[in-house]
Amino acid sequence: MNFSKTILNWYALNGRELPWRQTTNPYAIWLSEVIMQQTRIAQGTAYWERFMKRWPNVYALAEATEDEVLREWQGLGYYSRARNLRKAAQQIVEKGYFPQTFNELIEIKGVGEYTASAILSMSFATPIAVVDGNVYRVLSRYFGIETPIDSTQGKKVFKTMAQEYLAKENPAAYNQGIMDFGAIQCTPTSPNCKICPLIETCFAANNNKVAELPIKSKKIKQRERHFSFIYIRCNGKTVIRRRGAGDIWQGLWELPTTELVSNVIEKATLIKKNVKHILTHQIIFADFYLLETDVSPTLPTDFIWIKENEIEHYALPRLIDLLVKSL
Fold first, then answer.
1. Which of 33, 72, 94, 164 is catalytic?
2. Is 33 a known active-site residue?
3. What is the pTM for the complete model shown?
4. Which of 115, 243, 250, 287 could serve as 228's disulfide partner, Cβ 3.0–4.6 Å?
5. CA dist 157 to 136, 154, 162, 163, Å?
6. Average per-residue pLDDT in the chain?
């Protein structure tokens, strides 16, 4: 069975109809790739459409402020992607053109090998394979590759194999096809093997190894953290500050913690207790208090007072945003 041809045929019948697949505009494709990292298609599509409407080209995005981009990004997580997106747009504008070679693209902020390959194949029909989680899974299962996908050797093996089986006459369709095949057909759990067009020659399906492949050697360790935030309502205003570098939610705005206003916490009302928020490497538990007062408490100088109805103009971490909206 011709593996590549089967993928192309499957894609022609089953490929997802996504708005950025209706264009070869490198800006639109780059934007989709950045947004879709660590994001479900259903959620990410709405963000892509909003970004394209507000900043329809790289020049418009380059002129946006960091706060504007972070605010539009709110809820997607991994906020470094948003900061890199804006910086990358400025880099591209400074160049005067959208890069069309691999070496130029990976010099752009936030653009790695996968994103560069995706842009090149989908915008410029460059015969270069993409390798993402879906591609790892399909290749590992079909060809029976047991080298860990998160090892240096594994990355080399899969990159070489992906390039070998790339349909070079139609790299965009093939790359999109194998990724969709992994997302829809050869899923991480409960893949639809019974109606898979590759089942007759699939190593994993014929050797009872579907659940075992691909192999990953490193497990992500999550640590638990606890925060207690307090929303201060004082004469129609509230107080926030921008989080610094070196921790989660870098550059976003947060509420004071109860430690900072411990002298008035007994006057506050507990609104929510032990709200659980799961990140890739951390599990956050948060308590949320409301303090209504006519006297503004003393806070560090990096806090600013804003009108309550203007808090929506500031990029808040998703957890804090949800807590504020629960008032």
1. 33
2. yes
3. 0.81
4. 287
5. 10, 5, 9, 10
6. 93
